[in-house]
């Protein structure tokens, strides 16, 4: 039994390799959010992190 993001396992659920259990106990999760001050100059590492997660979904 595991708790995973649906987007990561939806293919396995659709093909029947995984099944949902305790579905009534799992609240919807809209996704992670990141707050950063946009008025400051952003370090390249933070910009790369944000870009990676923004466009990998």
From TrEMBL:
It comes from Rhizobium herbae. Keywords: DNA-binding. This is DNA-binding transcriptional LysR family regulator. Residues 9-54 form the LysR substrate-binding domain. InterPro entries: LysR_subst-bd. It comes from the Bacteria. The lineage of its organism: Bacteria, Pseudomonadati, Pseudomonadota, Alphaproteobacteria, Hyphomicrobiales. Pfam families: LysR_substrate (PF03466). Transmembrane segments: none annotated. One of its GO terms (molecular function) is DNA binding.
